[in-house]
Predict the 3D structure of the following.
Amino acid sequence: MKIHRAHFVESNSQVEKCPKSKLPEYAFIGRSNVGKSSLINALTNQKKLAKTSGKPGKTQLINHFLIDNSWHLVDLPGYGYAKVSKTEKKVFQKFITDYFLQRMQLCCAFVLVDCRHEPQKIDLNFMEWLGTNGLPFHIIFTKADKLKPSVLEVNIENYKKIMLENWEEMPKYFITSSTTKRGSEELITYIQTLNSTL
Ligand code: GTP
Ligand code: MG
């Protein structure tokens, strides 16, 4: 399955101001620089729909994109990067947590993690926070093009092992690359399947 049309709708810093539309939506969240905005561009086949940057902290607001006139894809600011003190860094920005807690249209979150890295505490904490609040999520491993297949496999097995220390099962996950578009069709098909069950 492919995306045929994608438009930017609006950016907001408060969940209360987000689009009133009741269309189902899916949010990309994860550390700064993990590749959230790039993946939105890869999925929609547009180079500049979502703003990307080599420097962390590019996306600062809640950005809604309307996909095929039937659902929203939401690009969020990264966590784990802020020009603030260490204690403040530990707290996820309030407008992001408000978004997850209050946005009734949200079908599920996709937590993006860079497949090159060991499981990071901040990601594990965020997933725990989602779980505690009963919010469904899946994992997207990004930048798969940067690893040899054998290393990728080892890293994913390691991620599973760490996840299983706290979770009964490994959440559903996707392996993606915005450069090669690996995983794009699978992800779109999955979202479309969820949409069709609503
Ligand atoms: P913030 O908006 O700061 O939270 O970052 P983000 O998660 O939206 O990351 P962004 O998409 O801006 O990408 C960060 C950097 O990683 C950019 O230099 C991208 O070109 C690069 N990048 C993203 N995805 C991939 C990928 O799949 N493969 C490779 N090789 N590079 C990627
Ligand atoms: Mg971004």
